[in-house]
Amino acid sequence: EVGVESAIIEDSDIEGQNGVIHVVNKVLTPPSHSIMELLQSKEEYSTMADAIHHIQEYEPQFLSSITNHSFTMFAPTNKAFEELGEDNLHSLMKNRRKLKKMVQNHVVDNMFATGSIHTKLQYNVQTEYQTVKVHKEKDGLMVNSAHVIEPDVVTRDGIVHCIDQVLVPERRRRKT
């Protein structure tokens, strides 16, 4: 069955004078939360929300610089952050420069829904910091080596894909 959000399309491709109509089995309502509100409201995203707040303390414009348009966030769960190890996580939270790069490595500057991903193709997706590799496998979507465990959470300002690993930025090589 084909659907949109959690509604099933019951009748499709009905041509009208100025468009096409698809009849669904329930009312579609616009999302009420922003990505940041979603991160703050769900306990499993609290570490990512804390990281963004920590950056905001020193760069008040940081959040508005990534949220002034529709965007996508690959949001690691708290468990994903815990897998970095307590010392690494503590060090990351204390180093604003590394923390900012880590957050930027989870933000894509446009809407990126899983329905646009085709199996057997790899997509190089530019985040706010560097490129990540996205591909679809039999058991779901992958971002680098992270599994997307909850895809396509639609918000007012974009889409969130919950992932099971932190996308740690690779060191950039200096040109000689």
TrEMBL record:
InterPro entries: Adhesion/Biosynth-related, FAS1_dom_sf, FAS1_domain. Pfam families: Fasciclin. It comes from the Eukaryota. PROSITE patterns: FAS1. Residues 1-28, 32-167 form the FAS1 domain. This is Transforming growth factor-beta-induced protein ig-h3. It comes from Caerostris darwini. The lineage of its organism: Eukaryota, Metazoa, Ecdysozoa, Arthropoda, Chelicerata. The gene is TGFBI_1.
